[in-house]
Amino acid sequence: MILAKNGQNRKDIRPGLEVDVVLKKDQRTGKRTHGIVKTILTSSSFHPHGIKVMLQDGQVGRVQEIAQ
Description:
Layout: E1 18-23, E2 32-40, E3 52-55, E4 60-66
Antiparallel strand pairs: 1-2, 1-4, 2-3, 3-4
C-alpha cells in the first residue's frame, strides 16, 4: 500500500518542493494555497495538522499535500 504524502512528516518536506498549504487566515474554510517551500518552520518530526512552512512568496501555512 502506498501512502499519499500528506505533509505531516517533516522528513517528507524540503526546500524547493511544490506543496499545497492552508494559511492561518484560511483555516476555517480549508482553502489551499499552492507554492514552493522556502523554509521549514516546524522543528518536530511530526505534526497532526501539517508541518508549518514558509513559501517562496513569504506566506506561512501548514502543508496539506505534497505535489507529486
